[in-house]
């Protein structure tokens, strides 16, 4: 069972100063069918995953990044370990009492590890999934987990998904970022059963929140790379005479540093970074007018389905077994299953 999503900058949410842009998640190939909205509030200190319903947007998940990592005076960095913050964990919670964490454990390149609370060892986490690039220069991210068959057998790495840039809008791809859950082999399909039978939509929330968190970090890095850098004042002891005559009336300028944007970021109308230019460095910041909606964290979507099994152990996703498919869910205000590759809900 495969699922393919696209992520774009929302065309219906105006940019808010000092806030990351609002993103939307759609089925691949259906950019006008919004499954989720990803909204940043309180100067990026809280993020909400909302889903539309006849009663209005319902909150299905909330994410809280490390203090100061995305607000004024803070920012993410390449490895996540050079910004001076000791806490690298994004705390997440969702409907049905689901809680998990996303921690960037990378040093030279980001490596995001997703974990669940361990019911057998309070205060400890058990591994779930991981997201990283296959190499630092790659333009896509892989999603994978490990299976363990015994203490004498090396763990097996199972790659079940990918985050990559869509084809440009002019070539028929629509732009944005594509998130794919392959679901071809039994081991890949076993991902959907990670939280137990009937909780496939919760797996969808976890995967999409992780992908959106990756994009947040990449948007911040892209904005920081475009900020003008102050050149150091020339020193008489270190200045080197130029063999070229200086331009009349102006100081000689060196070449501009090469800019790079290593991660696929959604670029629909206006571009992702149109509303975000990095966190403000001002000592005092005036609250923005109309700083966006403030979803009620208690207004989680009440959906049917059993909670995650408490007997879940830290062996990663369950061992693969043939899937029988899932029954079609009700309308959008009820829990929805993952999006099939065809773009239709089931």
Please, could you describe this protein's structure?
The N and C termini lie close together (11 Å). The chain has a domain of 238 residues. 9% of the residues lie in helices and 23% in strands. With 346 residues, the protein is mainly beta. Strand 9 and strand 10 form a beta hairpin. It has two helices and twelve strands; from the N terminus they run E-E-E-E-E-E-E-E-E-E-E-E-H-H. The C terminus is likely disordered. It has a twelve-stranded antiparallel beta barrel with strand order 1-2-3-4-5-6-7-8-9-10-11-12.
Write a brief structural summary.
With 346 residues, the chain is mainly beta.
Helix content: under 10%
- Specify Rg, calculated over alpha carbons: 22 Å
**Sheet with most strands:** 12 strands, antiparallel, barrel
The number of distinct β-strands equals 12
| Class derived from helix and strand content | mainly beta
Portion in strands: 15-25%
Q: Which strand order does the major sheet show?
A: 1-2-3-4-5-6-7-8-9-10-11-12
Mean of the pLDDT scores? 73
List the total number of helices: 2
Query: How far apart lie the N and C ends?
Result: 11 Å
Shape: globular
Q: Low-confidence parts, pLDDT < 50 over ≥5 residues?
A: 76-84, 235-275, 278-293, 297-304, 311-316, 318-336, 339-346
Provide the succession of SSEs: EEEEEEEEEEEEHH
Biased composition (Gly residues): 70-82
Biased composition (Pro residues): 317-332
Biased composition (Low complexity): 232-262, 287-304
Region (Disordered): 62-88, 225-346
Reconstruct the topology from this structure:
Elements: E1 3-9, E2 23-27, E3 36-41, E4 46-51, E5 58-64, E6 89-94, E7 98-104, E8 111-117, E9 125-132, E10 141-147, E11 156-165, E12 177-181, H1 186-189, H2 200-226
Antiparallel strand pairs: 1-2, 1-12, 2-3, 3-4, 4-5, 5-6, 6-7, 7-8, 8-9, 9-10, 10-11, 11-12
């Amino acid at each position: 069972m495969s699922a393919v999503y696209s992520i774009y900058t929302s065309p219906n949410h105006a940019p808010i100063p000092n806030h990351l842009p609002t993103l939307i998640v759609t089925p691949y190939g259906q950019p006008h069918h919004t499954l989720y909205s990803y909204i940043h509030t309180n100067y990026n200190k809280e993020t909400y995953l909302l889903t539309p319903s006849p009663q209005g947007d319902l909150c299905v998940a909330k994410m809280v990044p490390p203090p100061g990592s995305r607000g004024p005076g803070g920012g993410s960095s390449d490895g996540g370990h050079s910004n001076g913050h000791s806490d690298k964990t994004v705390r997440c919670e969702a409907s049905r009492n689901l809680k998990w964490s996303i921690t960037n454990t990378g040093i030279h390149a980001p490596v995001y590890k997703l974990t669940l609370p361990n019911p057998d060892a309070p205060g400890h986490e058990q591994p779930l999934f991981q997201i990283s690039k296959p190499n630092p220069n790659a333009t896509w991210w892989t999603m994978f987990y490990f299976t363990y068959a015994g203490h004498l057998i090396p763990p097996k790495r199972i790659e079940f998904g990918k985050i990559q840039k869509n084809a440009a809008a002019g070539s028929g791809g629509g732009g944005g970022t594509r998130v794919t859950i392959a679901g071809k082999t039994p081991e890949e399909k076993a991902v959907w059963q990670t939280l137990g039978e009937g909780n496939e939509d919760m797996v969808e929330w976890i995967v999409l929140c992780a992908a959106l968190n990756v994009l947040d970090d990449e948007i911040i890095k892209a904005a920081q790379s475009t900020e003008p850098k102050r050149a150091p004042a020339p020193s008489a002891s270190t200045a080197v005479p130029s063999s070229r005559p200086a331009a009349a009336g102006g100081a000689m300028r060196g070449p501009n540093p090469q800019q790079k944007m290593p991660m696929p970021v959604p670029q629909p109308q206006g571009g992702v970074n149109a509303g975000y230019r990095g966190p403000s460095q001002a000592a005092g910041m005036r609250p923005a007018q109309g700083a966006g909606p403030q979803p009620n964290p208690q207004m989680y979507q009440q959906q049917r389905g059993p909670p995650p099994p408490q007997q879940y152990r830290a062996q990663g996703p369950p061992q693969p077994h043939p899937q029988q498919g899932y029954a079609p869910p009700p309308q959008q205000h009820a829990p929805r299953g993952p999006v099939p590759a065809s773009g239709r809900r089931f």
